[in-house]
């Protein structure tokens, strides 16, 4: 069982930046592909970004490509999401997830995640 704890959310003005972190409880973190998802009120949870176990392969949703950067530090068991040029439509609860099974280098559906964090709120004001 891998426990994931997100941090770094908050309130920011449009055009601003935030860096989310996701700390994992187990050294097996380094064996999982990891991802970030978000869920806005009344909407389904959506894929945002993913990274393979080594950090050499990443994937992004079209809506955040060029603005968000996913990275990981396996020595610290931590996943990151750098979010720049934030927009009001980025407002949501952001979740980190560990993928279940092999990773093909693209996005994945929420049900393909083995473990989830509790989420961190990001609010972007206009």
Overview of the molecule:
The protein is an all-beta fold. The protein has no helices and 11 strands. Strands 2, 4, 5, 6, 9, 10 and 11 form a 7-stranded mixed β-sheet that branches. Strands 1-3-8-7 form a 4-stranded antiparallel β-sheet, with no helix packed on it. A hairpin with a 4-residue loop joins strand 7 and strand 8 (78-83). It is globular. The mean pLDDT is 96.
Task: Provide keyphrases for this structure.
mainly beta; 126 residues; four-stranded antiparallel beta sheet; 11 strands; seven-stranded mixed beta sheet; 0% helix
Number of beta strands: 11
Largest sheet: 7 strands, mixed
Mean pLDDT: 96
| Morphology call | globular
Evaluate the radius of gyration. Answer: 13 Å
Per DSSP, the total helix count is: 0
Question: In terms of topology, how is this protein built?
Answer:
Elements: E1 4-7, E2 10-13, E3 18-24, E4 34-39, E5 46-51, E6 58-60, E7 68-73, E8 78-83, E9 92-99, E10 113-116, E11 120-125
Parallel strand pairs: 2-11
Antiparallel strand pairs: 1-3, 3-8, 4-5, 4-9, 5-6, 7-8, 9-10, 9-11
């Amino acid at each position: 069982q891998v426990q994931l704890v997100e941090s770094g959310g908050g309130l920011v003005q449009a055009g601003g930046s935030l860096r989310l972190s996701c700390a994992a409880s187990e050294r097996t973190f380094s064996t999982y592909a990891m991802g970030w998802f978000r869920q806005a009120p009344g909407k389904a949870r959506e894929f945002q970004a993913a990274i393979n176990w080594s950090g050499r392969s990443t994937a992004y949703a079209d809506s955040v490509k060029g603005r968000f950067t996913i990275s990981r530090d396996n020595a610290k068991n931590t996943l990151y999401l750098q979010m720049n040029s934030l927009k009001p439509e980025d407002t949501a609860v952001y979740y980190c997830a560990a993928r279940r099974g092999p990773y093909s280098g693209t996005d994945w559906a929420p049900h393909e995640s083995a473990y989830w964090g509790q989420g961190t709120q990001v609010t972007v004001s206009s």
